[in-house]
Amino acid sequence: MVVLAGIALWFAFQNASSRFGSQWSGNNPQVVNHFSFEHITGNLQGSTSILFLQILAILFLSQIISRIFRRIGQPEVIGEMVAGIMLGPSLFGLLMPDAYAFLFPPSSLPILQGLSQLGLMVFLFLIGMEVDFAQLKKHVQSAVFVSHASILLPFVLGVFLAITLFQEFAPANVTFVPFGLFMGIAMSITAFPVLARIVQERGLLHTNSGRMAITVAAVDDATAWCLLALVVALVKATGVGAAAYTVLFSVLFVLVMVYVIRPFLSRMGQVYFTREIVGRGVMAFVILLILGSAIVTETIGIHAFFGAFMAGVIFPSDSRFRRIIADKLEDFAGAVLLPLFFAFTGVRTDLGLVFNGGSLGVFAL
Question: Which of 59, 91, 131, 274 is the most buried if burial means most Cβ atoms within 10 Å?
Answer without folding.
Answer: 131
